[in-house]
Amino acid sequence: FDGLRDMANDFRVGSGGMSGTRFAVYGLGSSEYESNWCRAAVDIDSAFRSLGSQSLLSAVGKGDDSTDIQGHFREWRKSVLSALGAGGSQAAGSGGGKSTSSSQATECCGGSGEGTTSQDCGCSASGDGSPTRKKRAEGPVHKVKPKRIKVQRPVGGKRGAADAATEAVVRMPEDMVNELMLDITVDSDASDTESLKEAAPQSASAAGEVEGMVDLEDLGSTMAASSAHVNSISRSLASTDPASRPEMVTPLQRQSLTKEGYKIIGSHSAVKLCRWTKHQLRGRGGCYKHTFYGITSYQCMEATPSLACANKCVFCWRHHKNPVGREWRWRTDEPAAIVAEGVDKHVKMIHEFKGAKGVKPERLAEAYTVRHCALSLVGEPIMYPRINELIRELHKRRISSFLVTNAQFPDQIRNLEPVTQLYVSIDAATKDSLKAVDRPLFKDFWERFLECLRQLREKQQRTVYRLTLVKSWNMEEVDQYVKLLEIGQPDLIEIKAVTYCGTSDASSLTMSNVPWHHEVLAFAQAIADRHAKSVAALGGPAEGRYGIATEHAHSCCVLLARRDIYFSSPDDQPGAEPRWRTWINYDRFHELVDQYYQDGTRFTSADYLADTPSWAIYGAEERGFDPAEVRFRKNRKGEKVPLEYKASESGCG
Description:
Blueprint: H1 2-9, E1 22-23, E2 26-29, H2 39-50, E3 54-55, E4 61-64, H3 69-92, H4 100-109, H5 118-121, E5 123-125, E6 131-133, H6 173-183, H7 192-199, H8 219-222, H9 227-238, H10 251-259, E7 263-265, E8 269-272, H11 275-281, H12 288-293, E9 300-304, H13 335-351, H14 361-367, E10 372-375, H15 387-396, E11 400-405, H16 410-414, E12 421-425, H17 431-438, H18 445-457, E13 462-469, H19 478-488, E14 492-497, H20 517-537, E15 546-552, E16 557-562, H21 563-566, E17 567-568, E18 579-580, E19 583-584, H22 586-599, E20 609-610, E21 632-634, E22 640-642
Parallel strand pairs: 1-3, 2-4, 9-10, 10-11, 11-12, 12-13, 13-14
Antiparallel strand pairs: 5-6, 7-8, 8-9, 14-16, 15-16, 17-18, 19-20, 21-22
């Protein structure tokens, strides 16, 4: 693109530098960006025109992710082929002399034309001969979009550098199980094993056995795996021998996760480097946890001991490529090994920034020591059967623990030992909206949800309700959210705008569903005001139990905190003016938790408070951006330039 732009602006090339070419441009984007919608495609079109190229169409094709973008692209492609004419169509399509089936494949989905039919590619022709994509049928459907991936090595084979370009993929029974679990609805309260038996095809001949290595182009037939596979999984679930259970992460899932930057640990855990870690290494700002709780972002490891989850949330940033399940049906890795390998992989990712442009040497040196762990990467960490042992391993290394759960496993919350801070995700306030937003696997998801809140109330350490706001989905239920506050009575309430991760088959969200920061603030204030009104009606303080303590405008995030705990005088200054104290005294926490491990001495969140700095307090001009950092923004030339901090109204996290 830069080369094309340079040519367009180079007087030596002239306006006829590409006069012998014809072109058409199609861009992908969101109309929510208005004048900047598909800006790159528009600029490319303009550059070609200025160089004398002839456009096949009168305007740039613009795909809008809020509409049927694939259908729009097919219509645009027909226009291009029509403009090219018969000869051009052959040149742009599958070539002269190809069979009718090849031509049809090119027309319907842009297939390679190598003997691929519409049946192979998953498309069908409508009555007028125009192609249409087959729609997903109601109920369990065990098919995936065909995708050709070369298969080269067996399961268990060593992974070398050469595998990065052409990763081996072996279709495992567990892949089929995961697809079946994704199709299970909340109308079933059976166990995973029973559900799999019900969902499995009755006829094994329809699918055939999945053995060895298969090309993913053939998954249309192999996806509906035979009952024998389900029976095999059922036997492994019932077995008391841990070695007979399958690994959670299959080669297919491992490839997908690794491609997106995840470092897989053992058979069911992972770490990934947070973008805020990279930013603060360069002195460009920390995450909202730095603003709210005083963590050092470049010393924080984002991890999970369980990539599996019991929900299929509409805003999931993994788009449901990770495993799902309602019970732990996999092999279990050792907690000490997970922590050791997780820290090792994290440190290696940090080491890759040695010598990188902008990285501060002193921060890089400190980043080799992990001080915090956010157990919230993906999946449901609390599903891991040995979660308490894993948390002890973290604390043994003086690593604080921030554990996030989706509020579907009340027994695990009840049995959980102290963590630095325990979150539950409150993605909706009513049964119907929670079902729509979280798409849980459990039939009794609402009862489980409420029981998790009751169990949270019994915890003595810091507890948090984490609200992810999605416009048109869960922002109209303020009174219902206030009722949930009385059940769990959390110490803190994080209210954050959903982070848009793109539209996919698993999610129909667009940028229009992302609230602006002022909308998040208004929602937070409404929660505080409504709760204060309900408390006052019962004879409580007029100002209410919660107040807005701090904000991180860049992440579109606000923190409500309990006044009776976090708005107080410092311990060493009795009688001093009350102030917000949402930061954490991490050294004191480790002293307290060590004592708990030794003799069971209990402690509370009030025992390890620290003052919130003035720049982080709600209403400060910095709006949560640490003044010790320098914010950068790209200019029109794509260069990063420092700028005087001004709070952003962006909905991006």
